[in-house]
Amino acid sequence: MNIISSKDNALVKHINKLLKSSKYRKENKSFVAEGLRVCFDAYLSEAEIEAVVYTERAFEKNRDLLSQIISVSNKKYIVTESVFSALSDTKTPQGVLCIIKTLDKSTLFDTIKNGGKFLALDNIQDPSNLGTILRTAEAVGINAVVLSRDCCDIYSPKVVRGSMGAVFRLNYLICNSVAQFISEQNGVKSYAAVVDSGAKKVNEIVFDSPCIVCIGNEGNGLKQSTIDACDENITIPMPGRAESLNASVAAGILMWEMVK
Fold it and tell me: How confident is residue 92, by pLDDT bands cut at 50, 70 and 90?
């Protein structure tokens, strides 16, 4: 097999576009997962792997795991270390990445009334926050995540890496509007997470299933339309001097309270 050594190679250009452009990912219905662990998670989750791209050194170091990934991939490519470094989105590249078809992981939300605890994300913009939230949601047992269409791309490299494989396993739905989605869920209790001393403290809530907790944008919080659509406002009590919490930290606390 020929080793790709030019950064002008068509495959290299394709991968770079997938890494940098949400629009290009949507048009091609594929995204990039980098790193052995994330790629192996894709393999274990039976995601459709279009191509595996790796260096010779990475193969020698991780022959057993990488061979399993290669065995289910449609194509495989070996690249030089310098080419892989140009492709990598990390400071210390492991020499392994996969091109993966976008996933159809949407749960059947028409059955939401049958039970489950759901998280709705309204205009979350930081990919690191989104990745951490997805990872935490899977870890604590949230049934599914709803994302407004104006959230950052769930397939961006930082989200995929930060989710530690949760993006392959967690059910999710992308909707035009969280407020509209909430309004359509008759019989499902919905909560708006706000910074408001007048809201009910989250540790005083009994989260019966089914329910949805909504979390808003890092800087501006929930949209007013989303707050208005929810049944009740809740807040995280903060007796310290901090006025707010990072979105992913707040989401982690809220999800823990939902499932405990």
Answer: confident
